[in-house]
Amino acid sequence: MAAPKVAVVGAGVIGLSTALCIMETCPSCSVTILSDQFSPNTTSDVAAGMLIPHTYPGTPIHVQKQWFKETFAYLFAISNSAEASEAGIHLVSGWQVFKNTPEEELPFWSDVVLGFRLMSEAELQKFPQHRFGQAFMTLKCDCPPYLLWLEKRLKATGVQMYTRKVADLWELHSEYNVVVNCAGIGAQQLVGDKKLFPVRGQVLKVRAPWLKNFIRDGDGLTYIYPGIHRVTLGGTREKESWSLSPDPGTTKDIFDRCCSLEPSLRGAQDIKVKVGLRPSRWCVRLQREVLSQGGLKLPVVHNYGHGAGGFSMHRGTAKEAARLVGECIAALQGSSSRAKL
Ligand code: FAD
What we know:
GO terms for molecular function: D-aspartate oxidase activity; FAD binding. Keywords: Cytoplasm, FAD, Flavoprotein, Oxidoreductase, Peroxisome, Signal. A hairpin with a 2-residue loop joins strand 14 and strand 15. Helix 1 runs parallel beside helix 6 (143-156). By secondary structure, this protein is α/β, with parallel strands linked by helices. The chain has nine helices and 15 strands. The protein has one domain: NAD(P)-binding Rossmann-like Domain (Rossmann fold, 3-Layer(aba) Sandwich). Helix content is 31%, strand content 29%. Strands 3, 4, 5, 8, 9, 10, 11, 12 and 13 form a nine-stranded mixed sheet that branches. It binds flavin-adenine dinucleotide. Flavin-adenine dinucleotide binds next to helix 1, strand 2, helix 2, strand 8 and strand 13.
């Protein structure tokens, strides 16, 4: 069989990282990315990019932990290299604070982030409305630079990228041997997945260079995440809302909530508002499927549905998707050599 031709549909953090992992595990593959949008116009560009996992109820915890560990180790190595600034990856320390003690004092990822500990009474004095807190150091991606860095690496390995909206994965069967579906919320229409739904998120990106520590309310709704150039203030979680228009009332509400956690934010400047649709699902869809029509077959690998945690898990799920692509190619090679006998 000649160099296997693989199409990756989608150019958010999941599509780009999956294409990179495929090139790393199968350098003889010819990989093409097809996407109707590229950075800076994807959901991934809107994200805060913090590595703090959200739990997927339908995925075993040990699997989620493995995905997070792999992602953390990958980005930690970048943060510790000369590439860190271009890739927009940096370490950040801070606090997750709770109004009441959570049922689970030690989250499953507490031994993956660095220096996880419970907050001291002295630290909690900074948050008079909160009674319990966790302090740790994690990684943050500045999302548009990270996506551009991934694109640059892909181009350097010979991956082609084309702007194209795919209406049906089957339309790719005559051009490619394997198709990888990383369409994010677009997968709802692309493969008719009724279990996938949008969770709208609105965030503010502000200039507040004096803020160095992250602060996250344990309910996950209000957060302050300092990046290299801007601080992300969040947020909202609106299930089944498809609106991409910023809502001015929500902007004020987010700003007020963040100022009550960190009063110095009243001096923040240059407020920009962004909206994105988290591709949410009971579990990430990470599996092989074989499409067939009229006796012809097209192996597909799905990798979508990362909800609120695409950055936290991307490298782990990309590695698994690349492994599944390898299985598809091995199966194709097996059937083509059987056909020659
Ligand atoms: P996307 O980035 O949406 O990419 C999908 C790609 O598929 C796009 O390029 C799109 O154009 C393409 N596509 C879709 N349909 C088609 C089609 N039919 N044909 C061709 N191309 C198609 N996660 C974290 O881990 N940490 C955070 O701090 C964090 N903060 C967030 C804050 C907000 C406000 C939001 C909205 C999300 C946040 N997330 C965070 C979640 C994260 O953004 C997502 O999980 C992640 O971006 C999903 O990536 P994706 O590549 O699957 O989707």
